[in-house]
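User: Structure please.
Assistant: Input sequence and predicted structure:
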Amino acid sequence: MKLAYLVSRFPQQYQTFVRREINELVRLGHEVTIFPIASAPSPLRRQPDREDGVDASVVYTPFVRVSAIVRALTRSPATCFRLAGALVADTWYRPAVMVKSLLAFTRSLGIAHIIASGGYEHIHAHWASYPATAALAVSSLTGIPFSFAFHAYDLFHTRILLRRKANAASFVVLNSTCSVDYLQGLLPDVDRKKLILLYNGLELERFKAQMANRSPDTQCPLVLGVGRLVATKGFHYLVDACRLLADEGRAFRLVLIGAGREASKLRSLIAEHRLTGRVELVGECSEAEVSAYLAQATVLAAPSLDPASGSHDVLPNVILEAQASGVPVVATGVFAIPEVVVHERTGLLVPPRDAEALKHAIARLVDEGGFALDLAARARENLAQNFNVHTNVVRLAGLFEKSKRSCVT
């Protein structure tokens, strides 16, 4: 089956789950082409992206291509004006969102021509915001069915023509039970059968090999935090917890992997707590580098904040990768995290914004090695049942095939 994947940018450091999904589809015999809609290194370029670990071609198109606009307006003027008008009506009070939405729409006109003439059979967008806007437009112009996947901010904040997209799509993928329930409450008139729970899949056999190479430092335990350095990740509470650990005279080091607007604040907090040398911000790392840190880690800490903080996590992918690598996890019990971190069964949960509780949980995992190993083993059992990329992508491919058959009939 020939599939078009629409994403915001490609490659993206934090989209390892998208790469795994695409590679598994290719392994199953499907042909996948990636269409980034938010950036392009050149006006029009096709290339296999093997260096980013993806066995798929990537097609970059310009935001505005006059020939594509003229072609679309000539062939489908009513559709073009209707969609553009709907975007403006839904986003006029958010100027930045409106501009980005219209740019996604104009880029979709060029993508539509490529997809219509290329024999593509289904369009799938990751993120319900601008990629799904483009997917809706391409599908409307070509008649090719589409689907899209929610992840985090696109479910809670950047909502653009959400009801229209959900009703027009063949199906909608959500990566947690909480997300399914939330969207159903938000759009009660959308057919519940369209809302598909499908967790982000992992290549568990690869992580099994990584487990064999684990060598955590027992003398100076490594606490690891991975993610964008933004307020919603709660890393400043993790630094506070480390100050409490230091006050107790404990040996440890904290490594934070990621970049973001909170970096300078975190550095100031580290200096204020006199943790320089014990807490390190290493910036963005490759997937291989993250794996190397996981092999050394004693604990993975994911102190995500609750919905009151604004944009927040649904189910941080790094929790899954840590559990797959055999690393015990302490996390906050917000939104969908308890679906994978079950307190005292597959990890430890603490309240958000509670450095004291976070400190106690980290100390417990360091001190009670047998308990920590039991948590890690049960976490992997859960991943094998619900987060296997092979099983989950077979199901996704089946949904693509079903959508194709429904369109033909």
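Residues 95-117 form the longest helix (23 residues).
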